[in-house]
Known about the structure:
- The structure is a homodimer.
- The first copy, chain A, has about 210 residues and is of the alpha+beta class.
- The first copy, chain A, contains five helices and 14 strands.
- The first copy, chain A, has a seven-stranded antiparallel β-sheet with strand order 4-3-7-10-11-6-5, with helices on one face. In chain A, strands 2-12-13-14 form a four-stranded antiparallel β-sheet, with no helix packed on it. The first copy, chain A, has a two-stranded antiparallel ribbon with strand order 8-9.
- The first copy, chain A, is globular.
Amino acid sequence: MKIKSFDRAQIEELESRYRARLINSLSGYKSLNLVGTVDGENINNLAIFSSVIHIGSNPPMQAMISRPDTVARHTLDNIKEIGYYTLNQVHEGIYEEAHQASAKYDRNEDEFKKVGLTPWKLEGHNVPFVREAHIKTLMKLKEIVPININGTLMIIGEIMWCSMPEKALMEDGYIHLSETKTVVGGSLDGYYKVSPLSRLSYAKPNEKLKKTKL
Amino acid sequence: MKIKSFDRAQIEELESRYRARLINSLSGYKSLNLVGTVDGENINNLAIFSSVIHIGSNPPMQAMISRPDTVARHTLDNIKEIGYYTLNQVHEGIYEEAHQASAKYDRNEDEFKKVGLTPWKLEGHNVPFVREAHIKTLMKLKEIVPININGTLMIIGEIMWCSMPEKALMEDGYIHLSETKTVVGGSLDGYYKVSPLSRLSYAKPNEKLKKTKL
């Protein structure tokens, strides 16, 4: 197999879009979530994030990276103003609408309408979920950690509520994400579907792993 | 479709492993990378991380979350001591070995040998890559950002070098991760393979997306 490599000097010399596509491929596939927010004037906002990660289950928390200079800015402003936001897993049936949410709409436009998705609200909360999403999570802002090195921000939130199709939830708490047809992202603009290999038993030194069918 | 939901009080009441599996499913699928490190006594260490994310392409940087109380501690100690580490994308051919790297080995054990993978070194660097990995990245530690809310740490590194199969690198810098059979993780112990849907054009308001075959 022929191998191609880039050292740091070669990376710096790359044309900027080429470099962005390459560097965005190096971490592997990305989780894809639509982040739903609302502002003080009741205008809904929707943005696609490929950086949501688990950071703890007790208390239950997730983090995501926001760049101050992108379309995600409306999202960031709304999260700061309202203190709540929603995460909605992107699946095979809505990935094109989700991608469209990355377009630079004006702040006063309802992005749900623009991309063709439906807002849905949980009783007692004004922040919009994506009705079409199968896995929905209500997040409460806990902290915004500045990453000084490149001016990005890590938004940390607590999980206040979540929902999923009953048939995707296994007996032991595992959510079968291929039941929900959750997709992943590649680089900046690639979309991929996912199918099960297996679940593996808790790893211990000098003990053979057991495989379970998924 | 019957829906199951959990509010915060219900989440807190869950048995701790159930809760961990559930909460770990909510962000979607996870990228999977083997992190290779070495200590001052030349003992190699290998750990699987499911939290590597892109945080910028200029300068090229990635971040990952480390818990001080897990097997990743050897990794963290080594990164602090040596200042360099490697990322090696997990693919279909090595996912069982990668999972095995999550076992709690003693510090003086060479985890490459224990799990059955081969260390490989780049000229001028002592930090080990996984020879069997198709996509390899050399990282230089830039900053460790403490996440005070739950005691985790965000390790931020700069990309100093990367390599991939020539046939997986497209003309525009996009790496075709299904060519490299890169896998994703679900919850704590699920492994999934990935296949292409499509690439979508840059999204603009009021303009139809163009699909490209992947």
